[in-house]
Specification:
This protein has about 240 residues and is α/β, with parallel strands linked by helices. It has helices at about 1-5, 15-25, 30-50, 70, 85-95, 110-120, 145-155, 170-175, 175-180, 195-200; strands at about 55-60, 75-80, 100-105, 130-135, 160-165, 210-215, 235-240. A seven-stranded mixed beta sheet has the order 3-2-1-4-5-7-6, with helices on both faces. Helix 7 (about 145-155) links the parallel strand 4 (about 130-135) and strand 5. The structure holds S-adenosylmethionine.
């Protein structure tokens, strides 16, 4: 379904029907998915220009439509997803990129498994970029994604980067306290406040411009009219481990 939202061809008729129905109910769903992917691409280019040539993309979905290994062709990329259907298709898709991209089926809430799988392909003693793009808001606080991300931060070598997008709401932006007490959104996800999202970076400083609306993070084109209705619901940032 996500591949179809991004304009790809790796999807089934049932996926297309579901998304067409979703788009009628929630018109911003498809533009949001595309804004999210456009941010991922800008962030991967930025981090690659900073000299990082190893990427660990967690909750990657299908590695299509301008995924990290397509945007940073000099880099090595490990994609991680827990979905067995994604695993089957991703493994087949990545056969075209031997030596450059690999897939590990693992739950990111088990960071030990993730790191063990990644270590078969990446050198974890050198800087990596960990991508947590449009995934953390699917994980409630009761699953303790904060702990899993802390383990990844701890293991990453100095110079590593952490790339995050996370859903929030206008209410969260206006009233951080109310957001804290409210927690979960009605669509089965966890919209967190900017402060809660910032906490996933731990003590890693954020690269300019900090934690901002995804379309405002180092944009490479002027905002389009349709963009104005989107950004309040998706925050984005890139942190760097300095020591
Ligand atoms: C909305 S997609 C995000 C795709 C991609 N990161 C992006 O931003 O374009 C979320 C993906 O996270 C995966 N996922 C959800 N929970 C996960 C978990 N606990 N561990 C690993 N993958 C997970 C889902 O299977 C799905 O493919």
């Amino acid at each position: 379904m996500y591949d179809y939202m991004l304009g790809g061809k790796d999807n089934f008729a049932v996926d297309r029907q579901a998304i067409d129905q979703l788009a009628e109910l929630i018109p911003e769903a498809v533009p949001l998915a595309r804004a999210n992917r456009a941010f991922l691409q800008r962030a991967v280019r930025y981090v690659a220009r900073a000299g990082v040539d190893q990427f660990l993309d967690l909750g990657s979905g299908l590695p299509t439509q301008g995924s990290a290994h397509e945007v940073a062709p000099e880099a090595k990329v490990v994609y991680v997803d827990h979905d067995p259907v994604v695993a089957a298709h991703a493994t087949a898709l990545l056969r075209h990129s031997p030596g450059r991209a690999a897939f590990v089926q693992a739950d990111l809430l088990d960071p030990g498994d993730v790191l063990a799988g990644a270590a078969e392909f990446l050198d974890l003693d050198r800087p990596i970029a960990v991508l947590l793009v449009s995934i953390l808001h699917f994980l409630p606080d009761s699953a303790d994604p904060q702990r899993a991300v802390a383990v990844l931060r701890e293991r990453a070598a100095p110079g590593s980067h952490l790339v995050i997008t996370h859903a929030t709401t206008m209410a969260n932006l206006e009233d951080e306290e109310r957001a804290r007490s409210r927690g979960s959104s009605g669509r089965g996800g966890t919209d967190r406040s900017p402060g809660q999202i910032r906490a996933f970076f731990g003590d890693w400083p954020l690269e300019p411009p900090g934690l901002v609306q995804a379309t405002d993070w180092r944009p490479d084109r002027p905002k389009l009219v349709g963009d104005w209705s989107l950004p309040s619901s998706l925050m984005a940032g890139v942190g760097k481990k300095v020591r």
